[in-house]
């Protein structure tokens, strides 16, 4: 396909989350990317002038395919899976470490989501490995926003009630265990849902959230 044809195809994409895969003329996967607005991101490759690695990649693109997702977090996870599967030429430089990072949910009364480079023989849950620290970090940050996990350095339950909840709690981005308004069991349930999501159990999570939404509506 010509650059003009690729641009026309890209402009037909919806402004929704997903993953795009660039193919060379031989059909080889040369780049994998994700976006929260596929139309804007993919179109930008063929509507703008680029330099360096991006220019070389765009010049090699013969066609592309997309995979639609419901959320940006799901797109991040899918992108990572495809990068590990295809090892595309123009994604290799994203690997900023000789090791591959994991996301770890610790086995504590109040679990934490952390990034590590080694699996240990403990009771924690590990997800990955991911293709780069950047990918793992982005997934962790998006997961924290999505599930309301604290981003502070407070240790629970030791720090419960010692300080006022931060701005994230006030604007609904954190469930604020520091306030004492959420029990250990309720907090662990949030991490249980996060664990299922990181395992790819999206159907379960959607059903769980729908059931909670309906229950809240009935209570009102």
Write a compact overview of the structure shown.
By secondary structure, the chain is an alpha+beta fold. It has eight helices and six strands.
Approximately how much helix is present in the residues?
40-55%
* Backbone structural class: alpha+beta
Give the neighbour order of strands across the main sheet. 2-1-3
Number of helices: 8
Spatial separation of the terminal alpha carbons: 55 Å
Note the overall shape.
Answer: elongated
Average pLDDT, rounded to a whole number, is: 89
Low-confidence stretches: none
- Rg measurement, Å: 20 Å
Biggest pleated-sheet summary:
3 strands, antiparallel
Count of DSSP E strands? 6
Order of helices and strands: HEEHHEHEEEHHHH
Q: What percentage of the residues does DSSP assign to strands (E)? A: 5-15%
Task: Characterise this structure.
The protein is α+β, with helices and mostly antiparallel strands and 220 residues long. It has helices at 3-10, 38-47, 52-60, 72-86, 133-147, 167-170, 184-198, 202-219, and strands spanning 18-23, 29-35, 63-68, 102-105, 113-116, 125-127. The chain has a 3-stranded antiparallel sheet. Strands 5-4-6 form a 3-stranded antiparallel sheet, with helices on one face. The protein is elongated and about 60 Å long. The N and C termini lie far apart (55 Å). The model has no long low-confidence stretch (mean pLDDT 89).
